[in-house]
Amino acid sequence: MQPDLLPGHRAASVLRNLRLSSPLVHCMTNDVVQNFTANVLLALGASPAMVIEPEEAAQFSPLADALLINIGTLTAQHGGAMLAAVHAANESSTPWVLDPVAVGGLTFRTRFAHDVLSLRPAAIRGNASEILALAGVVAGGRGVDSTADALSALPAARQLAQQTGAVVAVTGELDYVTDGSSSWAIAGGGALMTRVVGTGCALSAVVAACCSQPGSRLDNVASACRLMKLAGEQAIAAGRGPGSFSPAFLDALYLLNEEALA
Questions:
Q1: Start-to-end Cα distance in the chain
Q2: Buried b vs exposed e over 49-65: b needs ≥16 C-beta within 10 Å?
Q3: What mean pLDDT, rounded, does the chain reach?
Q4: Which portions of the chain are predicted below pLDDT 70?
Q5: Are the CB atoms for 222 and 261 separated by under 8 Å?
Q6: How many CB atoms lie within 10 A of CB 257?
Q7: What is the pLDDT of residues 15-52, one digit of tens each?
Q8: Strand order in 183-186's β-sheet?
């Protein structure tokens, strides 16, 4: 059964809370997207920090409001730092989010992602192929690109949510967010969002920021998806292609208001 669309007033409430609290998000993300991710968080009113040295990562994550683990450019050293940060975050009850970039296609990152699933992520955000692979279903991802449809991965996302206790977001033309029992669908965005580097990775950082907010974690994660999709729609309408999209997208995030969401 197709999940209902997330009500706009719920996303509006999350945006209001996010801007009032300005959460500090510890982003252990891939080298390709650090600048864009930081700018997306700043545009929405959150505060980014990129701390990757293992000793500092373990020290810093309890000071942050949320932690992002993105394995796009995973190395053995980065993996050690990420594990140290996750353990410290769990000790301080800091929510953390897993972005399993290209899981299923490469052995090292796939093993790492499966290993950290037992460490209680608050949320997992990936494309359909990544979520299918993480749930143990054979998937045909091509690097960071999905070769599966998001709706087809929803049963695997529900299974993964039940297994880990995380809210799982499967992103695509429509996004689907589930806690294993309830689910939301999120419409919006557009194909141009896939023609620039970093929109998915930045979404995972916004998911982390929203996981730090009060209320339903399912609603908070779904709202993160809605914020990004609405800003994407507006940026596509204002731009002419990938070159003009990125600045227009940051402007749209900065100018998002509760009325447009509701």
A1: 25
A2: bbbbebeebbebbbebb
A3: 95
A4: 138-148
A5: no
A6: 10
A7: 999 999 999 999 999 999 999 999 999 999 999 999 99
A8: 47-49, 24-28, 66-70, 96-99, 123-127, 167-171, 175-178, 183-186
Structure tokens belonging to residue 194: 């896939």
pTM over 0.90: yes
Tell me which amino acid residue 106 is.
L
β partners of residue 25: 48, 66
* Strand blocks (E) in 149-210: 167-171, 175-178, 183-186
Phi, psi of 233 (to 5 degrees): -55, -50
What one-character DSSP code corresponds to residue 151?
Answer: G
**Cβ atoms within 10 Å, residue 171:** 28
CA distance 121 to 72: 17
Helix H, strand E, coil C: the string for the chain is: CCCCECCHHHHHHHHHHHHHHCCEEEEECCCCCHHHHHHHHHHHCCEEECCCCHHHHHHHHHHCCEEEEECCCCCHHHHHHHHHHHHHHHHCCCCEEEECCCECCEHHHHHHHHHHHHHCCCEEEEEHHHHHHHCCCCCCCECCECCCCCHHHHHHHHHHHHHHCCEEEEECCCEEEECCCCEEEECCCCHHHHCCCCHHHHHHHHHHHHHCCCCCHHHHHHHHHHHHHHHHHHHHHHCCCHHHHHHHHHHHHHHCCHHHHC
Name the residue with tokens 């429509």. Answer: 174
CA 100 to chain centre: 10
